[in-house]
Design brief:
Radius of gyration: 17 Å
Number of strands: 0
Number of helices: 13
Shape: globular
Order of helices and strands: HHHHHHHHHHHHH
Strand content: under 5%
Structural class: mainly alpha
Largest sheet: none
């Protein structure tokens, strides 16, 4: 019998209740405020907001209005380019996650990263970390999909397996997991905006996660549940575009 790699996390204090409440809140929003009103345009708006937030977290100085007008800086344009094609990789993240992650980096890095580095890990250690993340995505687990998305996000962001754009890739994979696992099939939640709204906590908890100790991992997963709530609040279902 295979061991559930996330079982230990679901036994930590506060984690089951936090993720159950967060999932319930997302489900209520999507069911009661969205199903009759969703459209491809709403998904596109969610992706645009996410691209902007992810770019800012990566160091962009562009505003959402500039990004919407196609006038953002290079980092913002990288994230927008990725957002336009990333949802097509949702099925692949379930079956061939290494290929999906490599493709995400190849798309976001095009034009600013040498062709020899696109989609390729920096070194052997980075390749090992990517394989471990892929194994986690493929492993059977009873843990909530939101928890899996949070752990994979932190693993990728802290491992930094590529020469660039690691945070952007990590946040893109997080969104794809939520889509692929059926939490948010139309990608209307904006997890990137949730992290931006809680930026100080986001960055400090990633540092704690990087340390690899249980306390840091525990803090990260509790933080991530709060960030998903903020990401739901940033959805175009709740905040129509101006």
């Amino acid at each position: 019998m295979s061991v559930d790699p996330l079982a230990w996390l679901t036994s930590l204090e506060g984690v089951p209740s936090a993720y159950a409440a967060t999932r319930d809140g997302i489900d209520v929003m999507l069911r009661d405020r969205g199903l009759r009103r969703t459209s491809p345009e709403m998904t596109g708006e969610s992706l645009l907001r996410g691209a902007h937030a992810s770019a800012v977290l990566e160091g962009s100085g562009s505003t959402l209005e500039e990004v919407r007008a196609g006038e953002g800086d290079a980092i913002a344009m990288d994230t927008v380019r990725l957002s336009s094609s990333m949802l097509g990789l949702a099925p692949l993240i379930k079956t061939s996650p290494l290929q999906a992650i490599a493709r995400l980096h190849a798309v976001v890095g095009a034009g600013s990263v040498g062709a020899e580095s696109l989609g390729r890990p920096r070194d052997a250690a980075s390749a090992d970390r990517l394989r471990g993340i892929a194994e986690l995505l493929l492993a059977p687990t009873d843990a909530p999909a939101l928890l899996l998305a949070a752990v994979v996000h932190a693993d990728l962001a802290t491992a930094a397996p590529f020469t660039s754009h690691n945070g952007i890739v990590a946040r893109a994979v997080e969104r794809l997991v939520l889509v692929a696992k059926g939490v948010d099939a139309k990608s209307l939640v904006v997890p990137e905006a949730g992290h931006l709204a809680l930026r100080a906590e986001y960055e400090s908890n990633l540092r704690g996660y990087r340390d690899g100790k249980q306390r840091g991992v525990h803090a990260w997963v509790l933080y991530a549940a709060e960030a998903y709530v903020a990401g739901a609040e940033a959805s175009p279902l709740r905040r129509p575009s101006a």
